[in-house]
């Protein structure tokens, strides 16, 4: 189990490795484009090559991209759907070019229309994206906290998308805060066992390729997306001991997306806590 974090990449993609090294991250997630804008800069082949070299030299891998927050495959606006599939496709091409595993992204929100109503559109969009992008980049669906009709707060919804699309390139990233806020009590041994059995039954554990390791500012089932530093939230340090001891996560990279003690994002103290827990529970 590698431990790492979402890190910034402003000033050039390879600068992510400097930020990673500074906090002791063994694996990273970066944005391939500004998260709150549709506009993106073109990344040149030499920058992609430099990234691959830096990844090999530092040994900091796997690398994941996180897609823009504007993506919404469940939208009722055709223009936003087109922009969403374009952005996802661009990120997947970039992932392939820089040697990242794939793109973790939020499926989007049906804004109350209902998941079932939007599933055919989501399926069609993802099939198109699969066709338009390199085979070596995974499309990684992230579970949601459930606020505002966001898709994927129930594992069954992610399972339904994966079954509908029917591609090995579809994977899942489990965000611990989102899951906890959606009512999955990962901090409790029995409930975690139940959740991971459900995951395996509905989705298959082989599709679980990343964890977003975040404590939760809000209570179990609170339905809101609010990350907290490890040990300072409702999941707590004991909860992360339960999570990291579970065999389902043994080979899965843990990526922090916490506020940080100085509110500057994932930091060394948070990485160090996860490392200590990993050592304690013998999760290698
Ligand atoms: Fe996310
Ligand atoms: Fe996340
Ligand atoms: Zn979140």
Summarize the structure.
With 284 residues, the protein is of the alpha/beta class.
List keywords for this structure.
eight-stranded parallel barrel, 9 helices, 284 residues, binds zinc ion, 41% helix, two-stranded antiparallel sheet, binds fe (iii) ion, 14% strand, TIM Barrel, alpha/beta
Describe the structure.
- This protein has helices at residues 15-23, 45-58, 78-98, 115-132, 155-165, 176-181, 189-202, 236-245, 268-281, and strands at residues 3-6, 28-31, 63-66, 102-105, 138-142, 170-175, 208-213, 215-216, 227-228, 254-256.
- Helix content is 41%, strand content 14%.
- It contains nine helices and ten strands.
- The strands form two sheets. An eight-stranded parallel β-barrel has the order 1-2-3-4-5-6-7-10, surrounded by four helices. A two-stranded antiparallel sheet has the order 8-9.
- Strand 1 (3-6), helix 1 (15-23) and strand 2 (28-31) form a beta-alpha-beta unit.
- It is an alpha/beta fold and 284 residues long.
- The radius of gyration is 18 Å and the shape is globular.
- The mean pLDDT is 97.
- The relative contact order is 0.14.
- The chain has a single domain (3-281), classed as Alpha-Beta Barrel (TIM Barrel), CATH 3.20.20.
- The structure holds fe (iii) ion (FE) (2 copies) and zinc ion (ZN).
- Zinc ion (ZN) is lined by residues 175, 177-178, 225, 227.
């Amino acid at each position: 189990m590698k431990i790492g974090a979402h890190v910034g990449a402003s000033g050039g993609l390879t600068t992510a490795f400097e930020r990673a090294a500074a906090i002791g991250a063994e694996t990273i997630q970066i944005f391939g484009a500004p998260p709150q804008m549709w506009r993106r800069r073109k990344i040149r082949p030499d920058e992609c090559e430099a990234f691959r070299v830096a990844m090999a030299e530092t040994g900091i891998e796997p690398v994941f991209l996180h897609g823009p927050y504007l993506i919404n495959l469940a939208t009722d606006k055709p223009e936003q759907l087109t922009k969403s599939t374009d952005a996802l496709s661009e990120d997947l091409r970039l992932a392939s070019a820089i040697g990242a595993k794939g793109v973790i992204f939020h499926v989007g929100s049906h804004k109350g229309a209902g998941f079932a109503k939007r599933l055919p559109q989501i399926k069609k969009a993802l099939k198109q994206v699969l066709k338009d992008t390199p085979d070596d980049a995974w499309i990684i669906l992230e579970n949601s906290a459930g606020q505002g009709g966001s898709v994927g707060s129930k594992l069954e919804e992610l399972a339904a998308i994966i079954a509908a699309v029917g591609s090995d390139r579809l994977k899942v990233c489990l965000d611990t805060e989102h899951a906890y806020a959606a009512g999955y009590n990962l901090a409790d041994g029995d409930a975690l066992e139940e959740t991971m059995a459900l995951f395996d039954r509905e989705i298959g554990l082989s599709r679980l390729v990343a964890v977003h390791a975040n404590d939760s500012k809000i209570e179990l089932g609170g339905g809101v997306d609010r990350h907290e530093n490890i040990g300072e939230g409702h999941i707590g340090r004991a909860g992360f001991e339960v999570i990291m001891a579970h065999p389902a996560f043994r080979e899965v990279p843990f990526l922090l997306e916490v506020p940080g003690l100085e509110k500057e994002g994932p930091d060394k103290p948070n990485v160090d806590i996860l490392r200590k827990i990993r050592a304690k529970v013998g999760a290698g």
